[in-house]
Amino acid sequence: MSENAPAWIVLDIEGTTSSTASVHEGLYDYARPRLGPWIEAHRDDPEVAAAVAETGGATTEETVAILHAWMDGDVKATPLKTLQGRIWAAGFAAGELTAHFFDDVPPALRAWHERGCAWRCSPPGRCPVSGRGSGTLRPAT
Question: How far apart are CA 78 and CA 44, in angstroms?
C-alpha cells in the first residue's frame, strides 16, 4: 500500500454505491416478512434476544409491529438494523438477494483492493461483500 493510500475506506451504500430503491424496495421488502419467523427461529441467539428485548415488545407479534413501524418511519434503530442485517446476510448467503452497484463502484472497489485498502459498508448488514475486496462484484444490469 502506498504512503498516501488510506488503510480503510468506509462506504455508505444507500445512494452512494447503490440506488436508494435497491435498499428500500429490495432489502427492506425482503426483510419485512421474515422478521417474525427470524425472531422465532433464532430466539436463543444472544444478539437476536438482545435486539428483541430492546424493542420493548412483549411478544413476537408486538415486536414485529414495532419493527414494522420503525421501517415505515425510516427509523435507524439499532435493534431493527441488527435484525435486518442478519436477515440480509442470510439472504445474500443463500443467493436469494443480489447486490446492486452503480457501474463505477466495482472498479473502484477492485482498485482499492489492489492498493491494499480494506473496506467496509455502513451499515455492515446491508453489504453483501466486505473486507479486502471479497465477493463477486458486477455492475447492476
Answer: 19
